[in-house]
Amino acid sequence: MSPDLLMIASFLLALLMGVPVAIALGVGGVVGIVAGLPLAMLGTFGTNTYNSVAKYPLIAIPLFILTGLIFERAGVAASLVRFAQAIIGPRHGGLTVVAVLVCLIMGGMSGSGPADAAAVAMVMLPSMKKAGYPQPFSASLIAASSSTAILIPPSIALILYSIVVPGVDLRALFAAGLFPGILAGVSLLAPALYFSRKYRWEDPETVERPPLWPSFKAALPALFAPVIILGGLRSGLFTPTEAAVVAVTYGVLVGCLLYRNLGIRDLWNLMTEAAVTSGVVMFIIALAGIFAWAGATLGTFQHLADALLSLSENGWVLLGLVMVLVLIAGMLLDAISIYLILIPIVLPLMNHFGWNPIWFGILLAMNIAIGQFTPPVAVNLMVTTRIANIRLEHTIGWALVFIAAMAASLLVVMLMPGIALWLPEKLGYVVGPW
Q1: DSSP calls for 367-388
Q2: pLDDT per position as a tens digit, 84-100
Q3: Whole-number Å distance between alpha carbons of 228 and 275
Q4: DSSP letter at 22?
Q5: How much is the pTM?
Q6: What's the sign of the alpha-carbon dihedral 102, 124, 398, 144?
Q7: Which class for 322: exposed (0-12), middle (13-18), buried (19 or more C-beta within 10 A)?
Q8: Residue 226 and residue 105 in contact, taking contact as beta carbons nearer than 8 Å
Q9: Which helix (H) or strand (E) holds 279?
Q10: Whether the Cβ atoms of residue 101 and residue 363 lie closer than 8 Å to each other
């Protein structure tokens, strides 16, 4: 068996045996080095793992993770829900609009789907249950809506994509994700509102409408968070990495001084939790460096790309195949692992067909977002079903509805690249030809 096949096979075998993704990547890389390179190349193990994480933009990842935890525990979601309810008012399907809106806004603070799913589900599920919505429907909708956090800036997945793909401007990626993220949210609202009105969920006469002005004042600190982050990036006041520091600082001020739901002990616990989560992420990135170096040195990724090219010379056919491959991966793996594993393989295809890297990155993110609420793994759905105290299989029917809706928005962005590329171009960022 060739070193290429041995490396890929050992990685897949480790995954099937239940080995954590990080270890499986490391094992695959080591097997590739031993099988196809001089044993002295094992001496690069330490250098490659260090080089993988010794990148300045990666500092933003633990800081945005901490930001999401701070806003989640500070009670931001509750204030946003009340404000959204005050704007939309009682009507059939009103709470579905509230859920999607709050998930989109929360995505502009943390960039983490599971964190947003937990924060919004804790607040929305009791209200939606009281209004007559079935728990499987509500859990599926919130899981799907919170997956847009991977698109709405700041997105942890897009930060990683900008590091893995050379020459991609993170600010352009952030801007490019905004309209597709909103489009994905709107696509979820279409079936949600249809079924809400069909089954007469949420009787307007039994739902209380919060007062607008007090709700707006309570939500104002939360609404300012995305404005500060994105406004600072656009004005050049700070870089994306520095934006993460600003976000943490602002979150601490809001949680401790304005909402007063956080204390010193809470901050210590949140920093500990963020450190553990960040450690897992960095461990995956570090060992993926071994896998990436071995694959690049052996030519494995180029060989796989050539094999895909041999299937068809039609760029749209191969783009469709890549999207299907990413969707399947998204059903089983987290976004970070998918980027680290698949980007080296599809990068030659992107260069061969001249796909715009910003647009292609957004397509990957939208596809991975669908995977976050697609069984069997469905990390967002696991979070919401646990909070709703229902079994995951009870949500499959509703999840399929929302999967189809978001897949339609993905197809629209695929056929109309301008949806993703218009805003970064207007803001003056380098987006390349399209």
Answers
A1: HHHHHTTSTTT-HHHHHHHHHH
A2: 888 887 777 888 988 89
A3: 24
A4: H
A5: 0.86
A6: positive
A7: buried
A8: yes
A9: helix 264-298
A10: no
